[in-house]
Amino acid sequence: MAGRAREIKGGLKQAAGKLIGDEGLEAEGRAQKAAGKAERKTSGTYHKAKGSIKRGVGDVIDSPTLEAEGEAEKLRGKLERA
Predict the structure, then answer these.
(1) pLDDT for 58-78, tens place per residue?
(2) Which residue of 27, 32, 33, 66 lies most exposed, with the fewest beta carbons within 10 A?
(3) What's the CA gap between 56 and 69, in Å, rounded?
């Protein structure tokens, strides 16, 4: 969630800089927005992979609970990447 917050703050800062004609503020906002997006995508990929592994292990050891936890983690990753 921190990545999304950074992305939103960066977008607001970028828009404010553009509105008042401050190129430095606009560039800072653009950079902050890009960093937030990268953070969000990286975190989402991690959770998606972790969920896939957990689900696979649950399948191998025949644990419906672990499979469900893995699927939930995988979905969390997909949501973070969106």
Answers:
(1) 999 999 999 999 999 999 888
(2) 27
(3) 11
| Cβ(49)–Cβ(64) below 8 Å | no
Q: For the chain, list residues with pLDDT below 50.
A: none
How many CB atoms are located within 10 Å of the residue 11 CB?
A: 16
CA-wise closest residue to 12 among 24, 36, 37, 30: 30
Give Cα separations from 3 to 25, 28, 69, 72 (angstroms). Answer: 19, 16, 23, 20
How many domains does the chain divide into? 1
Is residue 77 within 8 A of residue 46, CB to CB? The reply is yes
What is the spatial distance between Cα 72 and Cα 9, in angstroms, rounded to a whole number?
28
